[in-house]
Each structure stands twice: as structure tokens, then as C-alpha cells.
Amino acid sequence: KKAIKTTHVNVVEGPLLANVIGATAPYVMAQGVPEDDLFLASPTQMKEYQTAKMGYTSGWDAYQVGTEGAKWAYDTMHWHHVTTFADDYAFGWEDVGAFDKEFTKLGGSITKAIWPPSSQSDMSSYVSQIPSGTQAVFTELLGSQGVSFYSDWKSYGLKTKIPVLGFTTTVDQSVLATATVTAATGTNSYGVSQYCTDIPTKANQTFASLYHSTYNSWPAYYSEAGYTKAEILVDALKSLKGTATTEKKLAKAMLNVKITAPRGPVSITKTYYSPVQDTYICKVENKTGSARVVPVKTYKNVPPQGLLSVSTWTSTFTSNAKGRPT
């Protein structure tokens, strides 16, 4: 409120956590200020996009990632019995819900759903709950949670027995620090995401190389998301000849931008105010002592609903925003 009412900002580049986005975005847009969010976190947020036409997410939607990951797991890897492992709040509910909906539609089943609290950093007691007979684990975790998970997965002897398919935030360069290389890399460690560090395109190789030379680390999903937001805003400002004082015109210009980001082509749908973009299946590999996320399969131009019909996506999205998927 201080940023809007006192500082009078012209645009908000959205907050990080799903629960914060869900609270912030409707307020910001209702005040006539454009917001570019990181994640489509709630139906209320999307409804405000559609009503106010002052915002959108350039980041991603759980369903364009989760459903493609589910299909790959079922069709390519032939995993038909999978354990899910995710934070027990809206972000985890949506991520697992997306995977669950497509996976069970194809004929797969969820062996067990494990829900650590979002505030829990030590994953050991939860990793120990993974059933020995499960074929794989689909996991969404944040930051230090992912580091703990990979470490425990290895120390409990699961690394060679049970493969992991990590969601965007789990198989992320910010999680895969040097200290976890031996735990996270190998034939059983995969990810599904809208961004992999080693995408071989010129746009990404230029971005990743410059990022590494500047910060001495490889870019994470969060880094690329912020860079893409900046690209969209700069392109919109160029189209307005640098004028940002009319917020409605700025919002319209941002919505109309189509760019080739490090992650690939990105455009914003005018129906759901969310990105259409590529989704990647990645493998975690050890490259000169550093864990890197390398794409092994690309799904082109995936819409916000992923592989679901619009009606199924809408009802599932609404239901999972309120609680765990059933």
C-alpha cells in the first residue's frame, strides 16, 4: 500500500511466493497499477486480470509444467505408480494437482501423497515416508528444502532405487549448489520446468554465459524470470517512447509484447493473461564440478492449461487453490 499510495509506482513486478501473489495482485491492479506476476496462483488473481486488464503473469502456470511432466513420466518413463512430495500450501496443491490430474487420466496412480509444511526445512522425516515400492517421486520444494531432500534421498539409499522428477522450483540451479552435486546428479534425477540452465539457443547461451561471468554461478529459474520481466517492460516502454505515466497504456503495451526470452518464445494470452511458452524435461548432470540442468525434451508453445481441457483446468485450478487435491 505504501508503494501504491505514497511512492506512486507506475508498475509492480510481482512478488515471489504464491500466497503473497494471491493477496497482492488483486489490490495492486484494483488501484490502476499494472502488475507482472511470477506465477498464476489463484482464480481470484486471474479474475482480476480479466476484469481490470492491468496485469498478467509472464512467469508460468503449474498446469503447463505439471501436465507435461505427468505425460512424460507415464508415456516415456513408464512410471505408473508415483509418490508425490510437495509443500502443504496453495503452491504445492496446484503443482501436485496438475501432475495428479493428467497422470491419473492416463491410467497412473498416486502411491502416496507426502505434504511437509512450507515452513519445514529438514526433509529427513518426510523422505523416510517414501514407499519402497513406488516407481518414482514427483516433488515440489523450495530452496533449502530441495537441498535437504536431495541429500536425504541419497543418504537413505534411494538415489539408485527411486527416480525423482523435480518441479520447477526443486530442480533449480539455486538448489543445485556444488555441495549437492553428488546427491542431485545422475541417471535418476530429472526435472520438468519452463526453464533449464543449458537450453542450447543463442538467446539462452548468451544470457547464461554473461550471468556466469558476472556472478560466478549459473542462472536459476528465478534469475531468468526476472530477466524476462525486464525484457517485457523495456520493450513496452520503447513502444511508448519511454512514457510510463499512463498506466493503462503501459499495461496494454506490456500485454502485447512478444519476445524470445532465454527460456524461449513468450507471449501473453488475452483470455487468461498468462504465458504461452515451451516446457522442458531436464536432466541434472555434473559439468566440471557443477550441477547443471540440461534439457532432454521440449514441448513447444504450451498454453496455461497444459494438456487439460479449459473446463477441466478451470475447475481443478479453483478446487486446488482452496486445499489439497483429492
Rg (CA only) = 19 Å
What is the 3D shape?
globular
Tally of helical runs: 12
Q: Can you count the beta strands?
A: 12
Distance between the termini: 36 Å
User: How large a portion of the residues is in β-strands, by DSSP E?
Assistant: 15-25%
The helix/strand class is: alpha/beta
Low-confidence stretches: none
Report helical residue fraction: 40-55%
- Output the helix-strand order: HEHEHEHEHEHEHEHEHHHEEEEH
Query: Averaging pLDDT over every residue, what do you get?
Result: 93
How is the biggest beta sheet arranged?
9 strands, mixed
What would you say this structure looks like, in words?
The relative contact order is 0.15. The strands form two sheets. Strands 4, 5, 6, 7, 8, 9, 10, 11 and 12 form a nine-stranded mixed sheet that branches. A three-stranded parallel sheet has the order 1-2-3, sandwiched between helices. It contains twelve helices and twelve strands. The chain starts with a helix and ends in a 6-residue tail after the last helix. The protein has 326 residues and is α/β, with parallel strands linked by helices. 41% of the residues lie in helices and 22% in strands. Strand 6 (136-140), helix 7 and strand 7 (164-166) form a beta-alpha-beta unit. The protein is globular and about 60 Å long. Helix 2 (18-30) runs parallel beside helix 3, helix 5 (90-106) packs across helix 12 (310-320) and helix 10 crosses helix 11 (247-256).
